[in-house]
Amino acid sequence: MKNRLRVLRAERSWTQADLASQVGVSRQTIHAIEAGKYDPSLPLAFSLAAAFGCAIEELFQPDPGSRPT
Asked: Domains of the chain by range and CATH?
């Protein structure tokens, strides 16, 4: 799944640790999401969207060619 976390975080001058603290996860979790190695749970996705003040769809998009499981 593609995401815009890194871009939106940089626009706000937030570190990974800053964002992690806001949504209640570890910095390593934010790193893994940004790197595309971890897809967040739905509650975490809602928390991330709330932190950025946007809809989940503005943060996450499916990879082209991937199929939902």
From this structure: 2-57 (1.10.260.40)
